[in-house]
Amino acid sequence: MAVHLQMVEEVEQGLITTDEQAWARMAELAALDLPEPIQPFAAYVGSFLTTVGEMAAAILAVGPIDAYTAKSCADTAFEKAGTSGYTGVEDGKQDAFRHAYWNVLMSRDIGTSQAKKVADIHEDYNPGTALANEMDLWNNSVGRNIWSAYPSSSDDSNNALVTETKSKLNAGLMKYIKNGAIVWTNA
Fold first, then answer.
1. Which domain holds residue 123?
2. pTM value?
3. Which residues of 46-69 are buried (b: 16+ CB within 10 A; e: fewer)?
4. Residue pLDDT, tens place only, 10-59
5. How many domains does the chain contain in total?
6. FRET pair for 122, CA 20 to 30 Å: which of 102, 106, 107, 186?
7. Do the Cβ atoms of 186 and 139 come closer than 8 Å?
8. Which of 72, 68, 67, 77 minimizes the C-alpha distance to 117?
């Protein structure tokens, strides 16, 4: 995973701008035999796309640049969810916000089709309960729909998109788990 984390940083910094550059840099970094941090299979170690298998599947599905951009979006979503004021890191409103906001950011940065591929891969590599999977898939879709309906002339900064995502959550358009059942976020 250390190679992938280094690649995310280099894409964020604009040092790598094409998939061809990314493939070459990945091979170069892999040859350095960087140490891999030990991580549980499905843990949120800061965000989404935290296992090598999940990141590799995303790279194969959408290419290195979009996969690393998706990881950067995941990190941002995780950070913003933590300061959102919502509770429930797992299966609560904070989780609903994180999934939707991640998909909003990915849709803006890599397109809704690529965002769906990466989000679906994440769910495949991190299976939860049937209720949690239903909730996550719903909220991922809401996030992509938020971006699709977002006026192109509007402010598309991260803060503006946080506000938009929160407004949809507060309006009850997302789902979370409460007392063992999926409920709307305005409940």
1. 2-184
2. 0.83
3. ebbbbbeebbebbbeebbbbbbbb
4. 888 888 888 888 888 878 877 776 655 434 333 344 456 667 788 888 99
5. 1
6. 186
7. no
8. 67
